[in-house]
Amino acid sequence: MKIPQCAPGRFYGAHSAEMEEAIRKVFAGGWYILGNEVRAFEEEFAAWCGCAGAVGVANGTDALELALRALRLPEKSRVAVPALTASATGMAVLRAGLTPVLVDLDQYRTMSVVSLREAFRFFADIRAVVPVHLYGQMAALDEIIPAAAEYGAAVVEDCAQAHGAQLHGRRAGVFGVFGSFSFYPTKNLGAVGDGGLVTCADAACCSELEALRQYGWSERFDSSEFGLNSRLDELQAAILRVKLPHLDKDNEKRRFLAARYTAGLTGLPLELPLERPQSRMVFHQYVIGCECREELRKFLADRGIGTAVHYPKSLAEQQAFAAASRTELPETERLLPRILSLPMYPELTEEEADFVIEAIREFFGA
Predict the structure, then answer these.
(1) Which segments of the protein form a coiled coil according to its record (predicted)?
(2) What is the pTM of this model?
């Protein structure tokens, strides 16, 4: 049995007719950039998410950069980000002309409020906070947002791995001033190429982002400010419109598979994912912690089971972020050599999940 760690092509196998019809309509329509499909997807995603509006962009990194630009912060202002995240999070901060401050994780592998408050005490010029809903787990926004407000900092959610995750019954992307999403093919809601989107707290924010994503145009061919060329194309929007109605069901399948993993792996010398109280995790990844990670990873690979490490280096260890400020990072440093992502996607079968469980149990002699 061969089980990849991720398999974005499996959705197509189950929904090929819908997807091909959506693609056909785009080609037949002859309009490929910022047309009806993008507008419809923005409206549908905003309604699904429960926010005032949404603006489609070229990718998730641009989404976060544009959201930060729209805050109009002074140049080089500090932005608090978790040290364990995709490098895209930190890169978006740098591209926006801002300075990252790296903070530690809590027991749920998201931004530590204790570490964040420590950062505020040390760095008075933190003007924004970017909590990352890592692996599909909501960060502690009910604590982070009040802490940020005390110091006059705006909150921009990095929701790239959390399409549909909830905290206190509200979806990711509606808590901060902005929420940034990625539609990279392996995401819970993935395109067949790159794509991204920003959710907005009000309509004025949406209008500002619409200008920033397209050269800073105040009107066509008139750039009134420094903007980007970052537009979600019609083809990707059409495909995302096909996939969005299936997302809640697909997230439930991820939760079912995660529960199966947890039941089968409990009792082994592993750290299993914890779900934050009053939240609903969507398991973009199912990440275990293992003291003998590399040995386990090789053992699984020999049996045809793909795994991944999200992520092998913290931002603190990457040269691009050498100038970033930081707090102490004990939990990040503890986790880094242990984390391992098991196969996780809605099309993973129960038989495949059980094969993974049995292989891990065999590794530990259980």
Answers:
(1) none
(2) 0.97
